[in-house]
Amino acid sequence: MSLELTGVQVRIAAEPPLFQPIDLSVAPGQTATVMGRSGIGKSTLLDAIAGHLAPVFTLDGQVRLDGRDILHLPPEARRIGLMFQDAVLFPHLSVGDNLAFGLSRQTRGRVARRSAVDAALTQAGLSGMYDRDPASLSGGQRSRAALMRTLLAQPSALLLDEPFSKLDVGLRQEIRDFTFQHIRACAIPALLVTHDPQDMAAAGGPPVHLQPVRT
């Protein structure tokens, strides 16, 4: 399962593109890093890949996942997971029920679903916390729970929009390592947007520096 971008650009209406064309291939288990100045369109690029691009924008180029063009597919059919700056968990659900919300439809039956969630909680270092209130978790615990919820949906690719930016230095390294380890273990391609060169170094995949279009 690889993610391939060919000649990808994003523009607003008839204006020039936000950045120069991108050509990128991300292998299974690899995390490529997108960097560039503020406002150049890093997060907008992720929106375009995931299928959440606002109507004012237009996407040029091709995006393929495992060799299949996904741009004509609705967001829910693209099977792309998303992680953002804030590890948001549903406050009205327990920690375990939050993870169960992300379960793939292929996991059927109460016993199988509970087993899958318990296994994910153990992997996240949250064993025994199924019934906990999400508000009782630390920042690092919330980040790990949010990642496991995303992975339980069995995405074909993962998009990370500065997911470590609000963590303190020590916790950032821990969650970075945890995230990239699971991306490799799941053998899915990932695309990380960040301003931090240390995030890029930890990701270890190909870097993409968005460049403005010369006019």
TrEMBL record:
Phylogenetic classification of the source organism: Bacteria, Pseudomonadati, Pseudomonadota, Alphaproteobacteria, Rhodobacterales
InterPro entries: AAA+_ATPase, ABC_SmlMolc_Importer, ABC_transporter-like_ATP-bd, P-loop_NTPase
Keyword field: ATP-binding, Nucleotide-binding, Transport
One Pfam family this sequence matches: ABC_tran
SUPFAM superfamilies xref list: P-loop containing nucleoside triphosphate hydrolases (SSF52540)
ABC transporter domain mapped to chain residues: 3-213
Protein name per UniProt: Putative thiamine transport system ATP-binding protein
GO molecular function: ATP binding; ATP hydrolysis activity
